[in-house]
Amino acid sequence: MRSLDAIIVGAGPAGLACAVTMRAAGLGVTVLEKADSVGAVWRRHYDRLHLHTDRNRSGLPGMAMPKAYPTYPSRAQMVEYLESYAARFDIRPVFGTTVSRIRRDGSHWCADANGSPLTAPVVVVATGIADAPYRPSWPGLELYRGAVVHSSEYRNPAPYQGKRVLVVGFGNSGGEIALDLANAGIDAALAVRSTVQILPRELLGFPILAWAILYRRLPARLVDFINAPILRLAIGRIEDLGLRRAAKGPRQMVEEDGRVPLIDIGTLDKIRDGAIKVRGGIDRLTSDGVIFSDGSSEKFDAIILATGFRPDLRQLMPDVEGVFDRHGMPLVTGKATAAPGLYFCGQITSPTGQLREIGIEAQGIADSAKAYAALLGERYPAVNS
What we know:
The protein has helices spanning 13-24, 40-44, 75-88, 172-183, 208-214, 220-235, 250-257, 267-272, 354-375; strands at residues 2-3, 6-9, 29-32, 99-105, 108-113, 116-120, 122-125, 147-150, 164-168, 187-191, 198-200, 202-203, 206-207, 262-264, 276-279, 282-285, 289-292, 297-299, 302-305, 342-344. The chain is an alpha/beta fold. It folds into 2 domains: 2-131 and 309-375, FAD/NAD(P)-binding domain; 147-305, FAD/NAD(P)-binding domain (3-Layer(bba) Sandwich).
């Protein structure tokens, strides 16, 4: 058994950012990644994906995104950026390493990695929120003869040519996949069970993220009240499209429910012109289609579940108490938890942009971890600039 200063689980944006900030704080770190490359989740996203946050506010600590990138970089550019980031700071994750359990071992933490225990006073869980697909079930699912895939398995419209496709869910993945299908001339419909909120990608010529950052210190209800009139003008009456507007505003929805509003990049226009149909929630499936909650039925050749992700981190550390909510999500991220030396980074949805928040959290974790290590009697010299 060998001892380390800090263990970071995950080599996505959060894991890499923490590695950089913690090294700068004088901590020696090792990054464990179950895949064979950095940014593994980003490599699996659908082809047409672009960031919803602008390039200038999406860089990780110490390295801005290249100016040659467009305002909203593509999935491929994000992967390229993560590779360049790891190379620039000489972050060399231990790939092909699955952490099956994290447990307390005296004053240290022990990570069971591929059957070999690694110990350190600090451990950071940076596995992300998009690595545990949620697949709902309905009566009749076993009878349905078409393909049912999760959005994490969708790549592009090619396999769906000539088919009728139902996309379940009205988050950003659902809206974009339906748009992708419609742009390819595929008969697409969206099953929307709940009330929704929609934001434009830009408002008055500025990225919507800029507005979220501007109002970040104000209470969510006040922000939503201030923004409601101009958002209604920008988006229009979604009720005319068969959608129901949520009583909670976009900011309140994110903070209280963890639900991210749809950032519209063309989905609403396709709904307006009929290329994307809007349907209600699903009641049950038949052998060749769906019966909706209003009693109507339609035939579909394939169903794509844009139903999000539900990581339950209690499976990773079943003996740790006081750090998770009832769903197994961290109570806090980016700061010290109730378990000394344990941190989470990027595990909670942020209204001001996930990548931007990851950078802020990574710096906070580095400062806190350094102070915690000092309390344990492990002194780290200041880093020369």
